[in-house]
Amino acid sequence: MKKLLYLFLCATTFTVSCTFFDSEDNIPAYLSIQSLQTQVNQDEGFNSNALKDVWVYADNELLGVFPVPVEVPIIVNNEITEITLFAGIRNNGISGNPVAYAFLNRLDYSLNLVGGQTEVLNPVFTYRDNAIFEYVEDFEGAHALGHDLDTISSNGLVTTSEEAFGGSKSGKLYVDEEKPELQFGSTFVYSAQNLNNQSVYIELDYKNDALFFVGIVAIVQGQELLQYKVAIPARDDWNKIYVDITDELSVTGVDDYRIAFGLGLEDGDSEGTVYIDNVKLVHF
Q1: What's the order of all strands across the beta sheet hosting 29-33?
Q2: Dihedral angle computed from the Cα positions of residues 126, 127, 129 and 135, in that order, rounded to the nearest 10 degrees
Q3: pLDDT digits (tens, 9 = 90+) for 34-88
Q4: Who is most buried in 4, 24, 47, 76, counting CB within 10 A?
Q5: Among candidate residues 10, 276, 39, the one with its CA nearest the CA of residue 139
Q6: Beta pairing partners, 281
Q7: 63 three-class SS
Q8: Kind and range of the H or E element at 181?
């Protein structure tokens, strides 16, 4: 792998020539990053992540955004190289939309890198101190996702022990031919007044056999306007998504909001089931 990376660097027109690398003093060192982990406090929900990429800086210069696992080549210019890592997500679950997740702390390393040698890093990211967890739902007790948004009053989110991500229970969305629609929002209303266009995300873990939707109910002059941000396809195993609702809450006139979920029976299906857990509403 190192040889392939070396050949690739020589084959490109990356502002340096192959003769630059021929010098023993300029043989690259490598950073080996095999996984990205997180650590959470008690009030930050279950510990889960869907970190896909690492943003790597060396001496304040961006080397690139790398899917993990990766070995990053670095030309050593100083006795000590200052390395900075940012954790990357796929915004709204879209593979072509990588972003550095703003709520996680950066990691800084001062490394004595040596050309031709590999430095192994095992990054563990934590949430920033100024990240506000407005709502965290683990479904271990009574949940606060009971605001009905559909026309079927007897249908709603239920707590179940059939599936669980972090504890012993999860939230279950279910539709069938008798009750083909389920839409609901958070019981509590949250203020959009002091967000100042800063990042707002819904995090959740999910497992589903049917397409479902996540978004907000924007409250404008007392009127509730349902706006779904993402449609999430079926997944056999538990997965995590980071839903960016910043733009929806930055619109002039939005006073308050709820987070919202929806599930509808698809053509040709007789039922549909979604399990959600570890729901978090996070902002600055």
Answers
A1: 70-74, 29-33, 118-121
A2: -150
A3: 999 999 999 999 999 999 999 999 999 999 999 999 999 999 999 999 999 999 9
A4: 76
A5: 276
A6: 135, 202
A7: strand
A8: strand 181-185
Residue type (1 letter), 189: V
For the residues of 126-179, what is the DSSP string, one character each? EB-TT-EEEEEE-SSS--S--EE-SS-TT---EEESSS-SSSS-EEEEEEESSS
pLDDT band at 24 (very low <50, low <70, confident <90, very high): low
Two tokens, residue 96: 């072509």
Q: Confirm whether pTM is higher than 0.85.
A: yes
For the chain, give me the number of helices (H) and strands (E)? Answer: 3, 22
Alpha-carbon dihedral of residues 192, 195, 196, 198, nearest 10 degrees? -130
Query: How is residue 59 written in tokens?
Result: 């001496």
Type of residue found at 206: Y
φ/ψ of residue 120, rounded to 5:
-90, 125
* Beta bridge mates, 152: none
Q: Sort residue 23 into left (φ over 0), alpha (ψ -120 to 50) or beta.
A: beta
| 201-239 pLDDT, tens digit each | 999 999 999 999 999 999 999 999 999 999 999 999 999
| Residue for token pair 């049917």 | 210
Residue 244's CB: how many other CB atoms inside 10 A?
19
Q: What is d(CA 162, CA 234) in angstroms, rounded to the nearest whole number?
A: 18
Domains of the chain: 2-126 (2.60.40), 132-283 (2.60.120.260)
Q: What is the pLDDT of residues 152-210, one digit of tens each?
A: 877 799 999 999 999 999 999 999 999 999 999 999 999 999 999 999 999 999 999 99
